[in-house]
UniProtKB/TrEMBL annotation:
Protein name: DUF3098 domain-containing protein
Keyword Transmembrane found: yes
Superkingdom: Bacteria
TM region positions: 22-43, 49-68
Keyword entries, A-Z: Membrane, Transmembrane, Transmembrane helix
Organism whose genome encodes this protein: Arthrobacter flavus
């Protein structure tokens, strides 16, 4: 390892490159899965409950928090 591999001490620490990616992926899976479930149940003629909205709301919250985390470092 060379001394030029280390960042200079006057630079602020760099954030990790993939910050928020896990939350965005989890949110996308929850939102897309919820919509597929809602459309499927509507096509089949099944009934929905308000519990169907819980994964949708959690997915949207994960997406929002993940996007905010990704843009914090810029």
């Amino acid at each position: 390892m060379n001394w030029t591999d280390d960042p200079p001490p006057w630079l602020p620490p760099l954030p990790p490159p993939n910050r928020g990616r896990l939350l965005v992926n989890t949110g996308l899976i929850l939102v897309i899965g919820s919509f597929i479930f809602i459309f499927y149940m509507s096509f089949v003629g099944g009934t929905h409950t308000l519990y169907t909205l819980i994964p949708l709301a959690v997915g949207l919250i994960c997406l929002i928090v993940g996007m905010v985390r990704r843009n914090e470092g810029r």
